[in-house]
Write a structure and sequence with these properties.
Length: 466
């Protein structure tokens, strides 16, 4: 039921996006050749040219939007994040459309197609798609706030699991659920009315017109749960059993089918399949460009490191990456030769005496990390992701923080969500882990690009970079 609601809302977004895309293409033609906001120097164009390519446009752009994750319904997505996502998807769609037009070479299109109209189409697409999505969002919100078409929900249970269900239902107004209260033999849920005990199930359902029952009871209440389910199957209600797995769940979960046997995947991430390929292409393209642009600066740093003490320019260190596989990270050497000695791995400290003169400067500005662009191109790392740690530290952290190894379900990054929020260096491991898991669960190219911009703006120089 919940998945169908999300799918229905996503289908509405698809329909609205298709209408907005068609309107954007025709509006771009009208602005170009009707209003002539850009001077026409090569004569008028027949709108039939754009009508001919419209089916191709309506095929490419929903695919680009889907790749960008815009059909994954996520209430926490802000309007600004959605606008950035629509912009990226539009650019991706235009690139895909241009490539297809060159490949198929339909007769007459290449000769008559206006590049200025294409540019206007990009702007019209972003504006009209955002306008359409805003209308849908406001319509849904107003309908539910007015109490229309709300489905009545009963919570069975009163513990932490039940409270977690209540919080999530309240945070997802787009589901159209209204919690009328809860039933339990004991315990309280703040802000909700206790309507009876498990023995009162049938009466509560009948009196309050319940349509959905969320069974959120701990494993210790297995006998009460079986009694409740026996009562519920005799009623015309949708039954949602919430498994008591909160202590194991850090990423999103998904029910999977194993030849008719349902299994629960407790560590599902968006970074799979086409998304993984898209992120890898993003890393290769932007990593190569960054390496090319920054090569003069990297050459200068290498020269200064070499001249200071005639030691090696680069420092290689074993870190743990994707799927827990170790790799050698590459950095400009910023410490004196033999800095760690026999003391083993330890965090860098403020005013660390092991730093060289040039090392103090490049660490303060995070320039010692630039050679990791080579790690990105090799596939050891990504531009954005959880920062990799040394195996010695990982063994310590995984013992103290049960979900720590989930960080390694994606490639380690040169920068990340934790770093741009100040959690870098010798700071709280728990806070770094929370930010890393948020990134993994909510990944999109839009989020990667946002983190890169935040890194340039806030994260290059930091008080904990020493």
């Amino acid at each position: 039921m919940i998945q169908r609601k999300y799918e229905s809302l996503a289908a509405v977004y698809v329909a609205v996006d298709l209408a907005a895309t068609a309107a954007a293409l025709l509006t771009a033609w009208w602005l170009r050749f009707g209003l002539e906001i850009i001077p026409v120097t090569k004569g008028q164009q027949d709108p039939a040219i754009y009508v001919r390519i419209l089916p191709l446009v309506l095929l490419v752009f929903p695919l680009a939007f889907a790749i960008q994750g815009l059909y994954r319904v996520r209430p926490t997505r802000t309007p600004s994040e959605e606008a950035v996502g629509v912009t990226f998807a539009t650019i991706l769609g235009v690139l895909g459309l241009s490539g297809l037009l060159l490949w198929f070479r339909p007769e007459g299109i290449l000769v008559d197609y206006s590049r200025a109209t294409l540019g206007l189409f990009v702007g019209c697409e972003i504006v009209l798609v955002m306008f359409g999505r805003t209308l849908v969002r406001r319509f849904v919100q107003r309908r539910y706030l007015a109490g229309k078409n709300l489905e009545r929900v009963l919570i069975a249970g009163s513990g932490e699991l039940a409270k977690a269900v209540v919080a999530r239902v309240r945070n997802h107004q787009e589901l159209g659920f209204r919690i009328i209260g809860y039933i339990a033999d004991e315990g309280e849920i703040e802000g909700l009315t206790r309507l009876g005990s498990i023995a009162d199930t049938e009466r509560v359902i009948g009196e309050h017109g319940v349509q959905h029952v969320f069974v959120a009871m701990p494993q210790a209440s297995a006998r009460s749960m079986m009694e409740l389910l026996d009562r519920l199957v005799r009623e015309v209600v949708s039954i949602h059993v919430v498994p008591d797995l909160l202590q194991f769940m850090a990423l999103r979960s998904r029910v999977e089918d194993l030849d008719g046997l349902p299994t629960i995947n407790l560590s599902e991430t968006p970074l799979d399949g086409w998304s993984l390929l898209l992120k890898r292409i993003f890393d290769i393209v932007f990593g190569a460009v960054a390496l090319l642009v920054l090569s003069p600066l990297m050459g200068l740093i290498a020269l200064l490191v070499r001249l200071e003490d005639r030691g090696p320019v680069f420092y290689r260190q074993v870190r743990m990456g994707l799927d827990g596989v170790a790799f050698e990270i590459l950095k400009f050497r910023s410490m004196k030769m033999g800095a760690e000695g026999n003391g083993g791995a330890k965090w860098a400290e403020k005013d660390d005496p092991r730093r060289t003169k040039i090392g103090r400067w490049i660490r303060e500005w995070s320039l010692d990390e630039l050679p990791q662009l080579w790690n990105v191109l090799r596939g050891d790392m990504s531009l954005v992701g959880p920062r990799p740690e040394r195996p010695e530290f990982v063994e310590l952290f995984r013992a103290e923080y049960p979900h720590y190894m989930l960080r390694h379900k994606v490639r380690a990054g040169m920068t990340g969500w934790a770093q741009v929020h100040g959690w870098r260096g010798n700071t709280s491991v728990r806070m770094r882990l929370e930010h890393d898991l948020y990134y993994i669960e909510n990944w999109s190219l839009m989020l990667d690009f946002k983190i890169l911009l935040m890194t340039i703006r806030h994260g290059v120089r930091h008080e904990n970079a020493y």
